[in-house]
Amino acid sequence: MLILLADDHELMREGVKLVLNKHGSDFRFLEAQDYAQTLCHIETNPLIDVILLDLAMPGKERLQGLKQVRLSAPSIPIIVLSVFENSSDVKAALMLGANGYVPKSSASTTLPYAIDRVLQGETYTPSSMLTQPEITTGTQYFAYKNSELQLMDKEITGRQREVLQYLVEGYSNKEIARKLNITESTIKTHLTNIYRILGISSRTGAVRAALNLGMQ
């Protein structure tokens, strides 16, 4: 099995290899320490079986990086390895195409199990996170009726669509304001209106809705 192990900390990469090799002898590894190397490996190694991805690597903002990796490797399972264990990070990763989410504080048996699950077409998140009410997994997305879609198309302005697109790409309010040459407070106003139109109350909810409406 060929695993692309993408993490900017060598100690973490060595630890992951040690853990996996204890659970099997058929693992081979490609290593990357930033997003540029990760994307290069994806382009030049079509036989990668699974990607283990630390979002907080140099080169891209976390969610933007995951989105780029998913676009470059649409059919390869991706498991996020992260120090962040809050439900919003898990949900955002799943929304942007991750097949699994493994906190770095997990037991050593967790990662081999997660790899097995995603290779069988399933989605893996820790059971403790699944009990949090705002977590959803796999391909559970918002389902909008046609009338609601038409209403959204009618109400959202062109500028709001631009803001929403940058939101999907993982930019912060400050970065979006800079790109659109408007104030950060104006961005917050646009987001408030977007949340109202979409019937949601959070940034991750807006990203999910946008993805389900075909934004990429």
From TrEMBL:
InterPro entries: CheY-like_superfamily (IPR011006), EvgA-like (IPR051015), NreC/VraR/RcsB-like_REC (IPR058245), Sig_transdc_resp-reg_C-effctor (IPR016032), Sig_transdc_resp-reg_receiver (IPR001789), Tscrpt_reg_LuxR_C (IPR000792)
Domain Response regulatory: 2-119
SUPFAM superfamilies: C-terminal effector domain of the bipartite response regulators (SSF46894), CheY-like (SSF52172)
HTH luxR-type domain boundaries: 149-214
A Pfam family: Response_reg
Identification of the protein by name: Two-component transcriptional response regulator, LuxR family
GO biological process terms held by the UniProt record: phosphorelay signal transduction system; regulation of DNA-templated transcription
Keyword Heme: no
GO MF entries: DNA binding
PANTHER family (UniProt xref): HTH-TYPE TRANSCRIPTIONAL REGULATOR YHJB-RELATED (PTHR45566)
Keyword terms, alphabetized: DNA-binding, Phosphoprotein
